[in-house]
Amino acid sequence: MTVRPIRIFGDPVLNSEATRIDTFDEALRTLVSDMLETMDAAGGVGLAANQIGLTKRIFVYDCNGMRGALINPVWEPIDDYVQIGPEGCLSIPGIQAEVERHENVIARGQDEFGRPVAIRGNGLLARCIQHETDHLDGVLFLRRLEPEVRKEAMAVIRGADWYQAQGELVEEGDRA
Length: 176
Ligand code: NI
Fold this sequence. Notes:
176 residues, alpha+beta, two-stranded antiparallel sheet, 5-stranded antiparallel beta sheet, binds nickel (II) ion
């Protein structure tokens, strides 16, 4: 297993849509191991492939006592309940903001052997499923913030050492 470097805000791969996975081989299972180890090493509760530079539709998660990988995920809300709570991202160091998400969701996809799986989650796991699937669509949680809050977050990001070290960067707020 290998801890892979995590891409951070400003890397175009984080704004790229990931493509479907159709091959369930040893390389995929190694990827799952690496992603779980990378997530653990970073202290995260979820990690999407874009975050290690791969545009493949897979994320790993470890929250609410549930741990694993979901491939080609598609989720839907179970009811109308929403949750509003602090959210952060391993690819946006030091930024946390309140984000509204569905409280109860069911996610369907495949495991690393290609077997169909469904994960029903509430609270943190539901938030994780929504956040990580967004990553696979090239969407960062900044895009889910109220405009004023996003402006504040962008100001903090612009002042961050890790951001300035990257040079010229995209403006997340400019995206549709
Ligand atoms: Ni994230």
